[in-house]
Amino acid sequence: MELSGGGGLPIALILLLLFYFCSDFGAAIDTITASQPIRDHETIVSSDNAFKLGFFSPVNSTNRYLGIWYNDKSEAVIWVANRDKPVEDASGVVTISEDGNLVVLNGQKEVLWSSKVSNSFTNVSAQLLDSGNLVLNNITTGGSIWDSFQQPTDTLMRRMRLSTDKRTGENVQLTSWTSPSDPSTGSFSAGISLLNIPQVFIWNNNLPFWRSGQWNGREFMGITNVNSVYLGGFELVEDNEEGSAYVSFDFSIDPSTYFILSSQGRIIQRDRVSGKDEWAVSYTYPQNDCDIYGMCGSFGSCDARGKPICSCLRGFEPKNREEWNRGNWTGGCVRRTPLQCESVNKTGEADKEDGFLKFGMIKIPDFAERTSAPEDKCRELCLSNCSCIAYSYDVGIGCMSWRDNLTDVQQFYSKGTDFYLRVANSELAADKKDMKVVIIVPVVVGTVAIAICAFFLWRWMAKRKGNSTNRYVGIWYNDKSEAVIWVANRNKPLNDSSGVVTISEEGKLVVLNGQNEVLWSSNVSNSATNASAQLLDSGNLVLQDNINGDIWESFQEPTDAFMRWMKLSTNAKTGEKVLQTSWKSPSDPSTGSFSAGLDLLNIPQIFIWNNNIPYWRAGQWNGREFIGITNVDTVYLGGFQLVEDSQEGTASISFEFPLDPSTYFLLTSHGRTEQRDRVDGKDEWVVRHAYPENDCDLYGWCGAYGICDATKKPICSCLRGFQPKNVQEWNRGNWTGGCVRRKTLQCEGVNRTSEANEEDGFLKMEKIKVPDFAERTYDSEDKCRELCLSNCSCIAYAYAVGIGCMKWRDNLIDTQQFYGKGTEFYIRLAHSELDKDKKDMKVVITVSVVVGVVTMTICTLFLWRWMVKRQAMKDKSKTLQVDEGDRNSSNFGTAIDTITTSRPIRDHETITSNSSAFKFGFFSPGNSLNRYVGIWYNDKSKTVIWVANRNKPLNCTSGVVTISEDGNLVVLNGQNQVVWSSNVPNSVTVNAGPRLLDTGNLVLLRTNSNGSIWESFQEPTDTFMSKMKLGTDERTGEKLQLTSWKDPFDPSIGCFSAGIGPSNMPEVFIWTNNSPYWRSGPWNGRAFIGVQDGFDIMVDNQEGTAYL
């Protein structure tokens, strides 16, 4: 294909733009020597292809840096050389200098970075190891003279060492990037502190920000949620004589793990998702406010579960009561009563010796002093020394004592250490008096409480929380959640507490009522003698006898829970199935309308059925995974096992997640399968995944030959070459009728226009959830197309490793467009449809070339202007960022005063409300590169409350907010196209200007009057602010409603909306795709009777309006 033309201008522009806008990682060569440097767009690759070294540009940056990154889809950068001196164009070179150093040069041969080896060497080369370490080797001696692991940036790799040397003052530490788009040295650093007992610290501008707690030879005592040493773990080596120490890690279970110090000061543990080029965040430190160093000041204790989280240690009180009550706890606490050893009063209290209060499960304070005294001597030594105010003992450390302020104390609820605080005898006496009261009161209250609890236990036992008083026999988790996993007499409850579970004469397990009627039985066909039932650790209830062993188990008759090692099965010959069946409602465990299990129609799939009609399917099983589920590869997590016997017509599926053995799957009464995982260290459960996730997951949502795309509006469209069967119904949003073929296939009937020679062909579709009813053969991929084309009844085919060739003969049902994973799918079309596609493509290419030339020229101009301004913007701008992955983490900018036609605001400029409570300007949510105009809180949270161009984002930083000629507030892109407008219908000929009020409302004002012509509160997005009105007008049909974001990184309109509903009595509704999802209950003049107070409604019955 000819790419040049017009003097080669398009190629030059394309190359220029590709260079500036892409993180381009180049083509690999082998090594770096003085005679063979690497230039921009060239790389070297480690021998196992795990890592690459070369030049790159971070997102939203055109600067070029030399770095090392993972050679996978993520391209996660682990090291940067010239982080503080970027190359400003593509002229960078990495080579070996005359003195043997590795250097980065710009186009003017200036040294931007050097390995700075002090001794000169000749005959040197650089090698990238499989560990990600870049090593400078002396070829003559074979020894290493420098490596990148000695000069880390923000990433701690396997076997890398963070170290400290008190004598020389040398430290090897992590240092954060300034921002995700700027790898220059940020304000956060992390490394080892050797003040008596080694600890890992994060510092913010050299001030402690977080600490790991003391190292006891096995683990860091301030980290409760992981024992890293038992996972292959951390190693800390200390040399007391030399005054040095280093820490490193090697996780044998997951050797790809690494730690990154984010630009927000968090250490993030990233583990590779098994079998994928993706990374998951396993742990983050600090995790909450209590993890922040010294959050509660001296002698304060932090409890993340408390409200407020800070309190004074027993025997202490706030130093400044007023500031403490305001939530400013940094001033800490002071002792309430002086210690006896510090001052003896005149009332003979000299004999009343100080004592110690014991605190359990504590993150012990900083500044501990260590001695080798045994545990029984530790208390005695502290008590005999008046300067000792607390002590603790750990087997791996020994006796620890504290002399000064107790800083950074935290209450844990698992692990932690016993901590003993010195207090005056009077404080101990007060504690004992309180204890007497505490003991007496429970005796009285306890008698009453036990009676009450016994009554409630009688009502609740063996059933989920609900309004039912019926009694069931069941199995539940023996923890705080008491989650029920199995119910015996689900369809025949007891109506009193006379029930009995026993073994019948025939050896069956039975549930009897007070009249000895059998309400439920295990229904074992053969009689058994001397039978017994045992509840196993798996949650399986097993009926056994001495002769036959296990004769029945609850796992063979599941209810709504699919447990580890349980098998869901099907037998095509006998028709027998082991299925999950939902509860009728959360308070009624009787058999509901939903069931879930295996279907064996040619290729095994998991289905959810609603009254035996397909409701959701997992997609075909390929031996590793279900290809219709994109967000989790369960088999790689220890996962699912599907065993199929084609000859017998049977199949079963079970699972075991070794990384999380407590996981189970629940089929809810609403027909959703929820994967529930236990919260680490807690008796709580979280829903990790749920299916179906959206309307597109519902079976056959778009009918035959329709395809569903959850990102589109409307979500349903016909497959290429097809058209709606009933256009009128389709346009109404009733897509179940599906689509029909637009042109007859050549093989079905030859027309009279010589199309006999024009054979049918296949249209390729990518990342598809392939339809139901696939027929499988074991032909090769090439043969698959040929066989389908030669058989007129074959209308589509696909090939998947693990399945083979799949072909379809009938209606294509339940097809879905994915954007991650998915399968290539080929649909048979008439030649004229394929030819039409080629003609359309010619038009697209022609138009694209013309439009591309113009667009790239404009972009190049703006790019040049942007680069000129960039340095000035760096000095002025203040980048406001929060944690990666949060919807509010964004790049916001620098404030100017106002917006007028002559003074617009550009990207990285803002306007601020009078009280500085709110800012208005450009931002990017979370990990998105798109730019939006919005309003956010001008505080640490940067919570976004309003977005202008939510459905039309800018894809670069060329955006402008200004006043148009007709007085509207508009957002323009780099081509001066309006991507959003306030859309005031009447032209405002006088000057207009926006003002950001202290309420967060952006108001467009006439400058010659006090009147507003538009305000953002009239067009809310997802946030309901104080003094904002949500309303409805029955006469005009106008509504003021909230509309959700699509997801935390995409502020475009989501599927949820909220506002006042259309009813005789006003009430608030949340709708999902216009269907009611929640309601507040009617307004009674004072409150919504279904929620707590806090709102006001104004109703005008004559006008037919209501406002919230």
UniProtKB/TrEMBL annotation:
<dbReference type="Pfam" id="PF01453">
    <property type="entry name" value="B_lectin"/>
</dbReference>
<keyword id="KW-0325">Glycoprotein</keyword>
<feature type="signal peptide">
    <location>
        <begin position="1"/>
        <end position="28"/>
    </location>
</feature>
<feature type="transmembrane region" description="Helical">
    <location>
        <begin position="437"/>
        <end position="458"/>
    </location>
</feature>
<feature type="domain" description="Bulb-type lectin">
    <location>
        <begin position="896"/>
        <end position="1017"/>
    </location>
</feature>
<protein>
    <recommendedName>
        <fullName>G-type lectin S-receptor-like serine/threonine-protein kinase</fullName>
    </recommendedName>
</protein>
<dbReference type="Pfam" id="PF08276">
    <property type="entry name" value="PAN_2"/>
</dbReference>
<dbReference type="InterPro" id="IPR001480">
    <property type="entry name" value="Bulb-type_lectin_dom"/>
</dbReference>
<feature type="domain" description="Apple">
    <location>
        <begin position="747"/>
        <end position="830"/>
    </location>
</feature>
<keyword id="KW-0812">Transmembrane</keyword>
<dbReference type="Pfam" id="PF00954">
    <property type="entry name" value="S_locus_glycop"/>
</dbReference>
<dbReference type="InterPro" id="IPR000858">
    <property type="entry name" value="S_locus_glycoprot_dom"/>
</dbReference>
<dbReference type="InterPro" id="IPR036426">
    <property type="entry name" value="Bulb-type_lectin_dom_sf"/>
</dbReference>
<feature type="domain" description="Bulb-type lectin">
    <location>
        <begin position="435"/>
        <end position="556"/>
    </location>
</feature>
<keyword id="KW-1133">Transmembrane helix</keyword>
<dbReference type="InterPro" id="IPR003609">
    <property type="entry name" value="Pan_app"/>
</dbReference>
<keyword id="KW-0732">Signal</keyword>
<feature type="transmembrane region" description="Helical">
    <location>
        <begin position="843"/>
        <end position="867"/>
    </location>
</feature>
<keyword id="KW-1015">Disulfide bond</keyword>
<feature type="domain" description="Apple">
    <location>
        <begin position="341"/>
        <end position="424"/>
    </location>
</feature>
<keyword id="KW-0472">Membrane</keyword>
<feature type="domain" description="Bulb-type lectin">
    <location>
        <begin position="29"/>
        <end position="149"/>
    </location>
</feature>
